[in-house]
Known about the structure:
- The protein is α+β, with helices and mostly antiparallel strands.
- Helices cover 42% and strands 27% of the residues.
- The protein is built from 3 helices and 4 strands, in the order αβαβαββ.
- A 4-stranded mixed β-sheet has the order 1-2-4-3, covered by helices on one side.
- The radius of gyration is 22 Å and the shape is elongated.
- The chain starts with 6 loop residues before the first helix and ends with a strand.
- The relative contact order is 0.16.
Amino acid sequence: MCKLTDLGKLKYQSQKKAAEARKKQKVIEIKEIKMRPNIDTHDYEVKMKAVRRFFDEGDKVKLTLRFRGREMAHLELGMQLLNKVREEVTEIAKVEAEPKLEGRQMMMVLAPK
């Protein structure tokens, strides 16, 4: 026993099913926040508010610290700042890439839990 179906109808239904699946999926983007190691408290709070908003939307966040001139002599300040960020968002995010120095930039990637 065999079942005869219309090939055009079958293709149409499979396209509809695939389009419905694409509509429901969430594309995760990586948002970047750029800072300097000697950032002021209010500027830091504004950046952290943006980081929390990105996590609420389900996006990953890449924190970039840019060092200029003699700031390269004080890399520990940048590490302290990134550790401070990590402690503040530990309940809503996890560290995906540990802080690392690449040239004059220190980067860390956080992902929502």
